[in-house]
Amino acid sequence: MLAQRAEGEKALEALDKALAACPNLTQAHADRGRALLTLNRNDEAVKELQLAARATPDDALTHFYLAQAFRATGHAQEAKAEMQLFGKLEEASHAATAKKAQEVIKNKEELH
Question: Domains (ranges, CATH) in the chain?
Answer without folding.
Answer: 2-111 (1.25.40.10)
